[in-house]
């Protein structure tokens, strides 16, 4: 095998640094989710990236067998990921290719290697831990989120029977009350027509409630607006975009920006008109999305983000997302490891004290 490394400032073109065509072929070969593909990374870099892109590759007889994009910053290499990244990790045709890739990552980099949102529900995180320790790295890690998911093994009726009695009754009651207000219509768009107008509607609904007040809505920041717009355009061209709406007399009252790929439905950003909160528009939309997924043959719904009471009412299954820092045993690495390890030890009592003050 042989390896290659490329660099470019994030203001440049992805194609100038990474083998995009080969990357796409590799992603297709291993069935990678949308978040581990060039189109997603290109949108992320334009919105959030800073640092120099660094491509770690493994080749077999000249063919790309494994790849991991990283950003070089002052203290080392860091994954191009943040809270808008559902999952991150290496791509490889098999365990041997991924092991070689990770060995190069930890062997060649400087004091710190930072990886965020590794999938702890697969072998990915364990492979990263093993490779870091094999290279003598000092590792600090934690679970930063537990991402809920729903497995759909049968009909929607089969799934619905598994919901709590209170949830089923509430859904029926909410639907009756909303339908008494006007015509309630469920829609799913793939973005091939009228995409810009649909996104404007979705962003407005998503920002109409607490997300808008807290500044966490898509439209609250220019870079998040640009990011999700770019992702939607990219996904629409690939046939992966799903924009789900509930409309009341034609007016959007609940929405979800989602991707569908490989039999999996990924819900990225959802919201509802909080003036209708007592009618449960968000829950009704999600109920109809699940029914739509069952009809389409989707076998898994990824709710993404972290667990909360709403998601827990639909599923009790989740997959951990791992934050990891691996430090070299050079003096600078030891100092950084000591600081990170100390902070991780201090986090639980600090969280307890914060809750107590509240």
**CATH-derived architecture of the largest domain:** 3-Layer(aba) Sandwich
Mean pLDDT: 90
Number of strands: 13
Strand content: 25-35%
- How far is the first residue's CA from the last residue's CA? 56 Å
Indicate the structural class: alpha+beta
Q: Low-confidence segments, ≥5 residues, pLDDT <50?
A: 1-12
Broad CATH class of the largest domain: Alpha Beta
Q: In percent, how helical is the residue content?
A: 40-55%
- Largest sheet composition: 13 strands, mixed
Counted by DSSP, the helix tally is: 12
Question: SSE order in H/E notation?
Answer: EHHEEEEHEHEHHEHHHEEEHEHEH
Task: Kindly identify the CATH topology of the largest domain.
Answer: Aminopeptidase
> Radius of gyration, rounded?
22 Å
Domain count? 2
Could you say which overall geometry the principal axes of the C-alpha atoms support? globular
Model description:
The protein has helices at residues 20-30, 38-48, 95-108, 124-134, 156-161, 165-179, 195-206, 210-214, 222-238, 281-296, 309-312, 331-357, and strands at residues 7-9, 52-60, 63-73, 76-78, 91-92, 112-119, 138-151, 184-189, 241-248, 251-261, 264-272, 300-302, 318-327. The chain folds into 2 domains: 7-146 and 320-357, 3-Layer(aba) Sandwich (Aminopeptidase); 153-298, Gcn5-related N-acetyltransferase (GNAT) (Aminopeptidase, 3-Layer(aba) Sandwich). Strands 1, 2, 3, 4, 5, 6, 7, 8, 9, 10, 11, 12 and 13 form a 13-stranded mixed sheet that branches. The chain has 358 residues and is an alpha+beta fold. The chain has 12 helices and 13 strands.
């Amino acid at each position: 095998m042989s390896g290659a490394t490329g660099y470019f400032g994030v203001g440049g073109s992805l194609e100038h640094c990474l083998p995009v065509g080969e990357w796409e072929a590799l992603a297709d070969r291993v069935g990678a989710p949308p978040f581990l593909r060039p189109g997603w990374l290109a949108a992320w870099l334009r919105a959030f990236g800073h640092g120099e892109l660094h491509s770690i590759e493994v080749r077999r007889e000249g063919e790309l067998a494994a790849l991991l994009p990283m950003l070089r910053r002052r203290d080392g290499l860091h994954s191009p990921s943040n809270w808008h990244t559902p999952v991150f990790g290496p791509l490889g045709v098999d365990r041997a290719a991924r092991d070689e890739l990770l060995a190069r990552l930890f062997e060649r980099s400087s004091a710190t290697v930072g990886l965020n949102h590794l999938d702890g529900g697969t072998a990915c995180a364990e492979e990263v831990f093993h490779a870091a320790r094999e290279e003598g790295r000092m590792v600090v890690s934690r679970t930063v989120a537990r991402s809920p998911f729903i497995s759909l093994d049968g009909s929607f009726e089969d799934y619905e029977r598994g919901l709590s009695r209170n949830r089923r009754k509430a859904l029926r009651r909410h639907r009756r009350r909303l339908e008494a207000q006007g015509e309630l219509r469920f829609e799913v768009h793939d973005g091939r027509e009228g995409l810009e107008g649909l996104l404007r509607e979705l962003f407005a609904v998503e920002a109409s409630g607490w997300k808008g007040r807290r500044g966490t809505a898509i439209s609250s920041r220019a870079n998040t607006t640009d990011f999700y717009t770019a992702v939607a355009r990219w996904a629409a061209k690939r046939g992966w975009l799903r924009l789900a709406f509930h409309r009341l007399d034609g007016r959007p009252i609940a929405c979800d920006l989602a991707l569908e790929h490989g039999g999996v439905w990924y819900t990225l950003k959802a919201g509802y008109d909080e003036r209708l909160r007592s009618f449960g528009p968000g829950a009704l939309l999600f109920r109809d999305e699940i029914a739509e997924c069952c009809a389409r043959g989707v076998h898994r719904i990824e709710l993404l983000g972290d667990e909360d009471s709403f998601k827990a009412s639909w599923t009790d299954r989740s997959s951990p997302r791992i934050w990891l820092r691996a430090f070299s045993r050079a003096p600078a690495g030891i100092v950084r490891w000591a600081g990170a390890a100390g902070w991780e030890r201090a986090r639980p009592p600090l969280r307890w004290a914060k809750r107590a003050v509240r």
